[in-house]
């Protein structure tokens, strides 16, 4: 009852449970871009983000009859999204669909990113990276984190979820969530330090993830 009163998305999902197609369309409209952004970060491949978001919504619809309002809707949704992302990663691993071409062009590799940042046209040590170049460096650093660290970071920074809400979504304790976020910050600082030292990034760049909307 508490969540029905406080969370309008819970009320929408209860209407979906009663086969209200319009309520489901509204939930999709509210969360589609947020899910795609999340899947770009925690999914096995960025090009699969839209498909994984659609799979998440499909699971939500299939589970509608058993839905219970025991948490915020976003908490329940992101729990399903995390499971979808992990299942996709396992499936890709079994089928070995990641080709050598994909691997060689993977911009999440720290080595390839460093080479790109230093050798790109007009980009020299000492020049401040701006715009898309800055976003790419930060995004690539995020993608070197573990899947759980990335998800905790996304839910914290972009969804503004509390430790408890993140813990519920990831099926962890709040202590584990705090540890994940702490390790993520340390790892990001280590990944971005070379760019800071070379002058390619400002010293506070690792604290500006919230401003790179497509990380």
Describe this structure in words.
The chain is mostly helical and 215 residues long. The chain is built from eleven helices and no strands. The longest helix has 24 residues. The C terminus is likely disordered.
Span from first to last CA? 36 Å
Low-confidence stretches: 97-129, 205-215
Round the mean pLDDT to the nearest integer and report it: 77
> Which shape, going by the Cα principal axes?
globular
| Portion of residues within helices | 55-70%
Tally of individual helices: 11
Give a brief rundown of this model:
The protein is an all-alpha fold and 215 residues long.
Descriptive terms for the model:
single chain; mainly alpha; disordered C terminus; 215 residues
What is the element layout, followed by pairings?
Layout: H1 2-6, H2 8-17, H3 21-42, H4 49-62, H5 73-95, H6 100-104, H7 110-119, H8 131-143, H9 147-157, H10 163-170, H11 174-197
Helix pairs in contact: 2-3, 3-4, 3-5, 4-5, 5-10, 8-11, 9-11, 10-11
